[in-house]
């Protein structure tokens, strides 16, 4: 992902304060209020470190008689520190710079210095006065000591060198108070000598006054001085040495000792000291112990983060798994992809506002505030921002805009929480997801609460754990950091639990919206939750996936992993080379855990790890899930001879045989079986082979191979049918042998072109579609058309012919103008369509114009490419559609006495039938006879504009002229219908006569 | 009632056009009091359903012709909803359980048993039992058939079952033995010709005998198909002529073309194209055994005598194997490839013998 290495550095600059946080991490373990800025951290650091120097001071004073054989080193250390002190004014800046350029932070001269406190001078500077006053204050009753202190103070104030001297003293708190000697040995300047002499003198006086000075003390000091002189030199000595430069550009050569020697010397001296007794008696022993403890604890704290690869020499670590031993302890030790780490860290930092009550300032926002203009992007809704280092990062501001984070929504909700409340880490095992989650959470100042598959994850337990984790914090533990819940292996959790989790996340939102009162606070999720899974597409995770910030883990780069492995190998003194480690990484699919475990295994076995071992061994090879394409590739391709077992075993001088063994049938069969077995989805694999095998190059003129292959396809199909129908899994193992046959038949050395099999799926889709259409047609068939058959008969016999039957040739003219034959055809078509429940509907085609389509889509049924279906033009379809609708209505109408009535007349006649009923109520009984006759008369008045009506009116009037009864009838009534008078006209009988 | 198939369908046993003796027997059967379960079997388009409807009318009168169709919904044990269309009158119920696919057992249990259990409401009716007509009975799964056999025995007092099948071979013997089998053979050529001509006469058209005979050939003595073809031909060209084109079934034409393509070229590329065509046929719902049959018929008729036997042998082998599988395309393609194989061998041998 990191395509722009330069930008990486820029980013690093941008995130300098974050990185400083990284630096300060060990201290933050004690800090209660989470992540802090570098200044705060530094202050804390000072506070934390204040007491030990005081103690050291005391011990130093108390043990002045004790001397150390390590003085030589001490001097070296001090000078080095001086250099550093003067070299860069601010130690923090220096540290950061070192970080930036990737040199692992450690003592620059390796093991030369046994006290690994690089920061001491700075601290010494800051604390100097305090230390001295406090430390010396304890011994105030001693005048000599007072004097000594005065001298010291004078020295401190007088010149820088003296201050350094005291810095030096600080550094060597647990050794002895021999520094003046060192000074003497190192410096030639007279003033210093004088000062030191005075100190020595005063000290002697002090000892005399305390009366605990032993007789041989002087001689011991002398011996020590000699010792020191043996170990230091201004010329190039003949013993092993290390050249260092002092602040005054003088070169000093310091003798190297083996560690054993040093140890021995140390023991000797401490033993002697014990024998000698001490100035303060028991108190001194106690202080000595305390100091020792402090040293140890600080050594652990200081060394751990800097040197990731913990020193393996200590005996306690031998039994440990390397995986644990070399686990990344800090953010920058993480091996995983940088972008992934950062985006997760960014997300976690977005919680700061809620969790720690202080705003997290993204760089972008800072920029927006500092008024760079135009860069105020989506993050502008955060309230305040401090611009403590405004000018510093202006140049690399554009970075974020160009490369946006993948799925991270940088907006925050009303409470200042990120929109995505859960981060979901996903990726194959062994990439360090869990490690990342833990490291980042700890780094951001959280206390990690992990719930994994080994815990009870029933919905109830899950609920409890979630609520406890998010709403409470531990009371007993002095570690007051807020919790961050890490739900490991969540894809194995029951669905209900995941549903609850989703509800838990979203519920909080609801309650907040509903009531903004005090009660709302109760449920609000205020802690980040990190979920970890292997398969993000697990069905159970679907709801979570939608709300979560999904971070998918890209595989670790093999080279990067190998680099780390080299480091570990170096630390563990395992003989190996980079190439074999890369091979190991590749073999394990870049699984860090498996690689390290394999290395440990090899280490336990013997003392070297060669390429041969890696390839030879089954170690580190896990049951990896291979992609479908990889499997198909393996089936269609003969593996080229690789560096496999044989290659190395047979040595380089017999290459011919090696190749033979590699492409032999046995090897190929084994290989294919292995690959196919690792994938397992036989059905899809089969389909893929089926759809691709014909594209492969095959020297098969007679189709024998194809036949053979197809026989195996048939066999596979039968087996699969057997399995799925009868759940007979005993035949399952036979499925994989088909692939072997196909491989042997079609595999070539060339790169196979493999397309993803879609045909099978398409086929299913289309079949379903067709079936649905067909079912719709079946449903539409009315009881009067049962002769078309049922099921298959209807589909195969009727439908194709029906298309022809429904394609009458009609001219594009109005219905009235059609010839009698056409009329008849039309009539027939319409009736058939109504019988079968078909009609034409207007739909918009893909090209944009409107077409009439059969509904249900008869045309689509049994439509083969290149065959005409319904050959009706647009006009005919439109005409038929209208007529079909009319016919439908006609059929739906209650069947009256005149079923043969013309289509146009059906409706009016129905209305006419209603009318007499209505009037009958008004009429007196006797006239009911005449009423029957009046009905047609009314009909005639009503159908005023109709063509046929005129005819009927004529006939009716002719009739009525005959029937005198009506004419003579004394009762006349007027008929009124419609909504408007405009179409109404009174017609009197005599007018018509 | 506007398709000629429906319009001129005989409604009474006495008016049936062929197998008149059988019709007489059926009428006699109705007159007797002990009416058995029946199984009508015969090819498609031979008039099984017509005969059944005539029989029902003979038993119950014209009331059976007042049909209503309903869609019934069933819930399978696995909580799936299955819809089945039924056509019923007051006296009978016609159902096609194979609509429900593999859930036809549910239909048999729920619907048929339920109907069989209930007594006829109208006592005054001629019969004390009602009739359930099961169409496409040979599509019933074995499970459904087994579910049916007890029902047939137990509720014989209230219901009779008439099964219409194409072939009895797929009916379990238990059911076969419970039914009186009535074979409805396809009408012969003269019968069809006379029926077609009668129909045309009633429609006011003249049908040349040659055309009628060609229709018989084309329709493979399937009366329904013949009538539909006649009607389609009429739409295409109104006054019939003797050498008029008869519309064909698209899928048959497609299948024929596929077969000729197989003969024309035998390469993997061609095989892939054939596969596409086979897929197309399957998509359109042409059953694989029909595809098999069509292919074999065409291939056998177009190839040399010496490989005919082999082709048939392979066809039977692959079709049989297809029954045990689910992906028909594999088996179809396997057969095609096998044919290509033997055809190519045959061709190369031919070339060699020619050379000598």
TrEMBL record, chain A:
GO biological process: DNA replication
Intracellular or extracellular location(s): Nucleus
Keyword annotations: ATP-binding, Cell cycle, DNA replication, DNA-binding, Nucleotide-binding, Nucleus
GO molecular function, one term: DNA binding
AAA+ ATPase domain location: 419-555
Residue stretches of biased makeup (Gly residues): 371-380
Signal peptide start-end: none
A GO-annotated cellular component: nucleus
Comp. bias intervals (Low complexity): 894-913
Superkingdom: Eukaryota
InterPro entries assigned to the protein according to its UniProt record, in alphabetical order: AAA+_ATPase, ATPase_AAA_core, CTF18-RFC_complex, P-loop_NTPase, RFC_lid
Residue span of region Disordered: 25-57, 369-402, 893-914
Similarity remark: Belongs to the activator 1 small subunits family. CTF18 subfamily.
PANTHER family with a match to the protein in the record: P-LOOP CONTAINING NUCLEOSIDE TRIPHOSPHATE HYDROLASES SUPERFAMILY PROTEIN
Name of the protein this chain belongs to: Chromosome transmission fidelity protein 18 homolog
Organism lineage: Eukaryota, Metazoa, Ecdysozoa, Arthropoda, Hexapoda
UniProtKB/TrEMBL annotation, chain B:
Protein's gene: Dere\GG10322
Keywords linked to the UniProt accession: DNA replication, Nucleus
Cellular compartment(s): Nucleus
GO cellular component, as recorded: DNA replication factor C complex; Elg1 RFC-like complex; nucleus
GO biological process: DNA repair; DNA strand elongation involved in DNA replication
Lineage: Eukaryota, Metazoa, Ecdysozoa, Arthropoda, Hexapoda
Ranges of residues in domain AAA+ ATPase: 34-190
The species this protein was found in: Drosophila erecta
Reported function: Subunit of the replication factor C (RFC) complex which acts during elongation of primed DNA templates by DNA polymerases delta and epsilon, and is necessary for ATP-dependent loading of proliferating cell nuclear antigen (PCNA) onto primed DNA.
A Pfam family the protein falls into: DNA_pol3_delta2
InterPro entries per UniProt: AAA+_ATPase (IPR003593), DNA_pol3_clamp-load_cplx_C (IPR008921), DNA_Rep/Repair_Clamp_Loader (IPR050238), P-loop_NTPase (IPR027417)
Superkingdom of origin organism: Eukaryota
MF GO annotations: DNA binding; DNA clamp loader activity
Protein name: Replication factor C subunit 3
Family recorded in the similarity comment: Belongs to the activator 1 small subunits family.
């Amino acid at each position: 992902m990191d395509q722009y290495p330069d930008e990486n550095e820029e980013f690093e600059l941008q995130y300098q304060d974050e990185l400083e946080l990284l630096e300060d991490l060990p201290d933050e373990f004690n800090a209660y209020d989470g992540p802090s800025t570098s200044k705060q951290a530094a202050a804390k650091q000072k506070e934390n470190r204040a007491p030990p120097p005081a103690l050291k001071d005391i011990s130093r004073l108390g043990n002045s008689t004790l001397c150390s054989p390590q003085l030589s080193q001490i001097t070296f250390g001090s000078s080095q520190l001086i250099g550093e002190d003067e070299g860069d004014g601010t130690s923090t800046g220096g540290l950061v710079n070192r970080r930036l350029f990737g040199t692992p932070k450690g003592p620059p001269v390796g093991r030369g210095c046994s006290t690994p406190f690089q920061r001491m001078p700075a601290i010494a500077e800051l604390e100097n006065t305090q230390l001295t006053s406090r430390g010396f204050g304890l011994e105030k009753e001693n005048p000599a000591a007072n004097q000594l202190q005065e001298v010291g103070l004078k020295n401190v104030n007088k010149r820088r060198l003296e201050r350094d001297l005291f810095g030096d003293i600080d550094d060597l708190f647990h050794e002895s108070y021999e520094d003046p000697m060192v000074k003497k040995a190192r410096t030639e300047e007279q003033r210093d000598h004088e000062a030191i002499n005075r100190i020595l003198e005063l000290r002697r006086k002090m000892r005399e006054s305390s009366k605990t000075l032993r007789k041989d003390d002087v001689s011991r000091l002398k011996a020590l001085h000699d010792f020191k002189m043996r170990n230091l030199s201004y010329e190039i000595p003949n013993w092993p040495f290390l050249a260092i430069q002092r602040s005054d550009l003088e070169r000093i050569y310091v003798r190297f000792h083996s560690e054993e020697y040093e140890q021995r010397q140390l023991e000797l001296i401490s033993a002697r000291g014990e024998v000698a007794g001490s100035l303060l008696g028991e108190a001194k022993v106690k202080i000595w112990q305390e100091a020792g403890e402090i040293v140890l604890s600080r050594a652990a704290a200081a060394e751990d983060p800097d040197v990731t690869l913990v020193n393996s020499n200590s005996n306690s670590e031998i039994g440990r798994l390397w995986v644990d031993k070399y686990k990344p302890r800090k953010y920058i030790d993480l091996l995983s992809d940088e972008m992934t780490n950062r985006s997760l860290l960014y997300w976690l930092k977005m919680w700061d506002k809620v969790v720690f009550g202080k705003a997290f300032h993204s760089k972008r926002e800072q920029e927006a505030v500092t008024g760079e203009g135009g860069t105020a992007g989506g993050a502008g809704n955060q309230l305040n921002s401090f611009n403590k280092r405004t000018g510093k990062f202006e140049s690399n501001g554009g970075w974020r805009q160009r490369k946006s984070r993948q799925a991270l929504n940088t907006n925050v909700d009303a409470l200042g929480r990120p929109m995505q409340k859960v981060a979901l880490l996903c990726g194959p095992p062994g990439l360090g997801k869990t490690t990342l989650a833990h490291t980042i959470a700890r780094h951001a100042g959280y206390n990690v609460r992990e719930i994994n598959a080994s815990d009870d994850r029933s919905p109830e337990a899950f609920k409890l754990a979630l609520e406890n984790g998010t709403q409470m914090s531990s009371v007993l533990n002095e570690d007051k950091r807020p919790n961050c819940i890490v739900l490991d292996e969540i894809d194995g959790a029951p669905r209900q639990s995941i549903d609850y989790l989703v509800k838990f996340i979203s519920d909080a939102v609801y309650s907040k919206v509903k009531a903004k009162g005090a009660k709302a606070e109760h449920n609000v999720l205020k802690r980040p939750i990190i979920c970890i899974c292997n398969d993000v597409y697990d069905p159970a995770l679907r709801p979570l996936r939608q709300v979560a910030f999904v971070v998918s883990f890209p595989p670790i780069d093999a080279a990067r992993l190998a680099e780390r492995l080299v480091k570990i190998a170096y630390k563990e003194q395992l003989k190996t080379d980079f190439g074999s480690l890369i091979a190991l990484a590749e073999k394990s699919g870049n699984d860090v855990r498996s690689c390290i475990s394999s290395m440990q295994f090899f280490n336990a076995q013997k003392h070297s790890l060669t390429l041969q071992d890696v390839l030879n061994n089954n170690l580190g090879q896990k049951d990896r899930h291979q992609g479908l394409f990889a499997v198909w590739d393996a089936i269609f391709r003969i593996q080229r001879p690789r560096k496999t077992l044989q290659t190395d075993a047979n040595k380089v001088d017999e290459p011919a045989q090696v190749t033979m063994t590699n492409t032999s049938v046995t090897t190929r069969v084994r290989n294919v079986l292995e690959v196919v077995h690792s994938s397992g989805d036989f059905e899809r694999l089969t389909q893929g082979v089926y759809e691709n095998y014909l594209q492969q190059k095959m020297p098969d003129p007679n189709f024998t191979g194809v036949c053979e292959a197809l026989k195996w396809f048939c066999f596979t199909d039968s087996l699969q049918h057997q399995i799925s129908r009868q759940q007979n899994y005993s035949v399952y193992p036979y499925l994989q042998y088909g692939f072997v046959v196909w491989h042997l038949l079609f595999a070539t050395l060339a790169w196979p072109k493999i397309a993803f099999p879609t045909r099978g799926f398409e086929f299913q889709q289309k079949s379903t579609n067709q079936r649905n259409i067909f079912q719709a047609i079946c449903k539409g068939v009315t009881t009067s058309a049962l002769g078309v058959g049922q099921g298959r008969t209807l589909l195969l016999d009727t439908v194709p012919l029906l298309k022809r039957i429904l394609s009458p040739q009609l001219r594009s003219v109005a219905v009235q103008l059609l010839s009698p034959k056409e009329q008849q055809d039309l009539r027939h078509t319409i009736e058939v369509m109504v019988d079968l429940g078909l009609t034409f509907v207007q739909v918009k085609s893909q090209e944009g114009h409107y077409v009439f389509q059969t509904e249900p889509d008869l045309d689509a049924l049994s439509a083969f490419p290149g065959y005409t279906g319904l050959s009706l033009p647009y006009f005919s379809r439109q005409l038929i559609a209208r007529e079909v609708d009319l016919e439908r209505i006609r059929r739906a109408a209650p069947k009256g006495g005149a079923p043969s009535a013309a289509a146009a007349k059906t409706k009016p006649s129905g209305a006419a039938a209603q009318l007499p009923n209505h009037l009958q109520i008004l009429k007196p009984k006797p006239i009911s006879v005449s009423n029957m006759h009046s009905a047609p008369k009314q009909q005639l008045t009503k159908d005023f504009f109709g063509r046929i009506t005129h005819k009927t009116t004529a006939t009716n009037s002719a009739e009525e002229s005959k029937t005198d009864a009506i004419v003579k009838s004394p009762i006349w009534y007027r008929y009124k219908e419609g909504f408007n008078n405009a179409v109404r006209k009174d017609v009197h009988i005599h007018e018509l006569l | 009632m506007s398709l000629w198939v429906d319009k001129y369908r005989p409604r009474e046993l006495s008016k049936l056009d062929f197998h008149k003796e059988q019709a007489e027997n059926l009428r006699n059967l109705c007159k007797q009091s002990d009416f058995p379960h029946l199984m009508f079997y015969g090819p498609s388009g031979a008039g099984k359903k017509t005969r059944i409807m005539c029989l029902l009318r003979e038993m119950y009168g014209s009331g059976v012709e007042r049909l209503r169709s309903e869609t019934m919904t069933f819930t399978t044990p696995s909580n799936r909803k299955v819809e089945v269309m039924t056509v019923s009158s007051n006296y009978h119920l016609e159902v096609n359980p194979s609509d429900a696919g593999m859930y036809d057992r549910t239909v048999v249990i729920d619907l048929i048993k339920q109907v069989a259990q209930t007594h006829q409401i109208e006592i005054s009716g001629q019969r004390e039992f009602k009739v359930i007509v099961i169409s496409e009975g040979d599509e019933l799964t074995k499970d459904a058939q087994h579910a049916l056999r007890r029902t047939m025995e137990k509720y014989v007092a209230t219901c009779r079952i008439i099964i219409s099948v194409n072939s009895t071979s797929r009916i379990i013997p238990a059911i076969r033995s419970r039914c009186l089998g009535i074979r409805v053979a396809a009408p012969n050529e003269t019968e069809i010709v006379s029926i077609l001509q009668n129909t045309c006469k009633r429609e006011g058209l003249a049908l040349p005998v040659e055309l009628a005979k060609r229709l018989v050939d084309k329709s493979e003595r399937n009366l329904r198909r013949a009538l539909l073809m006649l009607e389609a031909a009429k739409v295409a060209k109104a006054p019939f002529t003797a050498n008029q084109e008869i519309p064909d079934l698209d899928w048959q034409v497609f299948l024929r073309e596929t077969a000729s393509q197989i003969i024309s070229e035998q390469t993997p590329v061609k095989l892939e194209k054939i596969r596409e065509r086979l897929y197309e046929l399957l998509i359109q719902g042409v059953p694989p055994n029909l595809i098999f049959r069509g292919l074999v018929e065409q291939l056998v008729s177009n190839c040399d005598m010496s490989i005919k036997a082999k082709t048939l042998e392979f066809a039977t082998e692959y079709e049989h194997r297809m029954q045990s599988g689910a992906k028909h395309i594999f088996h179809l393609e396997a057969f095609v490839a096998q044919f290509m194989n033997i055809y190519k061998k045959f061709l190369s041998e031919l070339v060699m013998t020619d050379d000598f």
